[in-house]
Amino acid sequence: MRGYTETLFGRRRPIPELSNSNFRVRQAGERQAMNAGIQGLAADIFKVALVRIDQALETAAVQSRLVLQVHDEVLVEAPEAERELVGPMVIDIMRGAATLDVPLEVNVAWGSTWADAKG
């Protein structure tokens, strides 16, 4: 037993509970280990996408700005005039943040407030 999980990007998460003598603690560690690889990979991919989105917005010299990440969402403030450029750019960057055997699905929504975009 290694005592840690590792994402496809190589990030390790120690799980000391795996070697605990208490059965319940060890079981909790096993559940953490089962979830950590997938959840960690998702976090790694999202962080790569965030950095690339920020860089692309800077390079494009637009007014749009990356504002916030919430779970699996990214909030970008963009003037209406930049939507046709920024929307596809963000989608392409997020879809291309990692090369996997399955496609990364991305959706976009617009609104004058976050609630409007989610509604």
Low-pLDDT sequence parts: none
Shape category: elongated
CATH fold node name: Alpha-Beta Plaits
Q: Radius of gyration, Cα only, in angstroms?
A: 19 Å
Q: What is the total number of structural domains? A: 1
CATH architecture: 2-Layer Sandwich
Helix content: 40-55%
How do the SSEs run, as a string of H and E?
A: EEHEEHH
Provide the spatial order of strands within the biggest beta sheet: 1-2
CATH class descriptor? Alpha Beta
Can you describe this structure?
The chain has a single domain, classed as Alpha-Beta Plaits (2-Layer Sandwich), CATH 3.30.70.370. Helix 1 (23-59) packs antiparallel against helix 2 (83-95). The chain is elongated. The relative contact order is 0.11. It is 46% helix and 14% strand. The mean pLDDT is 93. A hairpin with a 2-residue loop joins strand 3 and strand 4 (73-77). The strands form 2 sheets. Strands 1-2 form a two-stranded antiparallel sheet. The protein has a two-stranded antiparallel sheet with strand order 3-4. The longest helix is centred in the middle third of the chain and has 37 residues, at 23-59. By secondary structure, the protein is α+β, with helices and mostly antiparallel strands.
